[in-house]
Every structure is written in C-alpha cells, then in structure tokens.
Amino acid sequence: MSQDPVSVIVVSRGRPDALRRCLLGLSQQFYSNFEVVVVADPEGIAAVKQSDFADPTKLLEFDEANISAARNLGLAHAAGELVAFVDDDAVPEPTWLTNLVAPFEADPDVKAAGGFVRGRNGISFQWKAQSVDATGATEDLAVDDVRPSVLYPTARRAIKTEGTNMAFRRETLAEIGGFDPAFHYFLDETDLNLRLAAQGHATAIVPLAEVHHGYLPNATRRANRAPTDLFQIGASLAVFLRKHCPADRHQEVLRDITVMQRKRALHHLQNGTLEPRDVRRLLSGLAKGYEAGQSRPIGALPRIARSADGLRPFPSRAGSTIAVIAGRQWNAKRLRHQARDLVKRGQTVSLFLFSPTALFHKVRFHEDGYWEQAGGIFGRSERKQPLFRMTSFAARLKGEKSRVAEQRRLFEV
After folding, report:
1. Which CATH architecture has domain 6-213?
2. pTM of the predicted model over 0.85
3. Phi and psi at residue 300, in whole multiples of 5°?
4. Going edge to edge, which strands form the sheet with 138-140?
C-alpha cells in the first residue's frame, strides 16, 4: 500500500540539544514517506546544521516567540498531504507516524488526529483523550486504549488535540488559515480545535501513536515546571474568550483561571520552588496579559498557500531490524555500548536494565539513539501496579516487552 506523504513540523526555540534528540527520534520512524520541517531560532538552526540531519531537513529560521506564527511558516513550506506536529522536547515512538496517519487513509472524513502522550518517566500518560468547550474547559473522553476512535464534535464541545502530538490534512488546515498568530503561546491548538469543530470535522484519537514529552524549561517555566511568567497565558485567554465564549461569562472564566494559577503558584511556594514575591508577580502578569489580549487583533485568517518546495525525504528505519538487549543494572555500561553499536548498524534497539530491587521503572530515549528502560525486577512500571511483585528476570522482561511491543514492533523478536 502506498503511503501518504507527510510533513512533520517541529518548532524549536532555545533548546538546541532537545531539537537534535527529537530529530534522532524522528529518523527512527518506520514510516518512510515523510519530510521534516524545522522552524527554529538561530541557535536551533546552527545545531541542526552541525548534525547528521542538516541536508534532509527543511530549515526555516524564525526568531520570534510566537508558536502559531512559527507553525504557519512550517505549514507554508510543507509539501505533504498530511502535516504532523511534535514539540522539540518530545520524542515519538518508532510507529508514531504509521499509527497517526492510518485513520486519514482509512476514512476521508477524518481531518485531524491526535495520539497519546507519555510524561517524564516515559510510562505514565500526560494526556490521552479530551474534549473542550468554548471556555477552554476540558473533559476526559473514554476511548479504546489500542484501536483508533473517530470522534465528531457536538454543538458544545470540540475534540481536543495536543500540540506535541497531532496531525491534520494539509489542505483543511491551510484553508482555515492554520493557527491564529494572536495566540503566541497557550490555547493555540484549542482555538484550532474549535474552528475545525465549527465545520463539523471528525478527529481521530490514536492511542498507539505515542510521543514521550519531557516538559523542558522554556520562557514561561523552569525545569521543575515552576511558572516564571503568566503574561502570555493571560493574553491568550483573553483572545480565546473573545473569539469563542459568550461575553457574560468572561469574568467568571478569568476568575477560575486566576484561582487555578494561584493554587499552582502556592503549590510551588510550598515546595520551595517559588518565593512569596513570585506569586504576586505571576498573578500580576496574568492580569496584565489578559488586559493586553483585549486589544490583540482577531478576525478571518487568510488561506496559507503551498510553497513550491517539493517533499524532501527524511531518513527512516522502514524495514530495519528490531533488537532487544536485556541485562542486570551492574552490566549497564557494557550493554549500553552494545545498544549504541547496533543503532549505528541501522537497527532499532530497546534496552532493558533490571536491578534486584523494587525501584520504579523509567523509560528514556538515549542520546545515542536507543530506548532504555531501567528499574527493579520487583518494582512497578505502570503506576497502577502494586509497589512490589515477586517475579523472575525472564518473566519481568517478557511483561515489559509486551507492554511496548506494538509501539516498537517487539513482537518481531
């Protein structure tokens, strides 16, 4: 079966090392017919030019803190019939694109798709499936944990996608003007979801299209996720409410968001990651941003024309050999060397390191290009499991391989 051409758009600002790691993960996709469009600041552009991905990557320099405008620039240069988005601090599983694209190929009514997102430990989920209303409030959706679900919006709720793991038909997105540049940061994809919902378009939620998202620091948060600035959140909230929410509810929503952000700041204050003066400053910034957002221009967005650029194929691991390495934690150095060598030979590698403990498990995509899971033989991986389980090394390995078999095609080994 022929594969639809896909453009993967990555926006990066201030995170060159994370960007290189993201591109390394993209280079291990089993999907073969795709390109990568990087929209980045000069630091990010320089990092890609110094990497192995300089030639096959479409590089667009953009030195402005506006993720919507950056995504639109990427969309203008995208040659694929489908466009997918992943954040620079995220890494997709090898079957990400294969799974994310499948609902578009199966159903012409599907105009958007989103996959599941795993958090910092590489196991727990940050996001699965949600709907959203005109106030920006979300509700969890019950969907199948394996098979894609094609969902239609209702009169009051749209199907939400997460910016770090979503895809659209390029023409559908271009026709409505892409992302609204009035949203510099926050609620940008939510606004898009509501505009697509207004046209009745279907969205597929694709569980096995998984991305690991690290939540690295940026201009508005630290590495410990403590907020540093709420101005853009306030500004985007004002724009969002002006576009979608009845005017008589604006102040109610603003109060609720202010209370939520205050609780968030106080939580960090109690943990010692913020000071009392930070709480006052953050809430003041939220209010100032909301005021500034009242005057940001909103209106019809122009259609985004397609560039004359053709598809620039990005390297993939389509047809690659799948390898699994497993051993005790005290042999980690030797096993990591082995994993790195197999990656260099073009194999897709999963490394499992177990210790005779009840330590929780963590998964990471190593900068040398392999997936590593480490933890105790008796400890839990999924957080719903008991704290301690008596088992053998072989049984534990079998169980953990099974947990990610579909995402990495481990059933082939």
Report:
1. Alpha-Beta Complex (3.90)
2. yes
3. -65, 140
4. 138-140, 130-132, 158-159
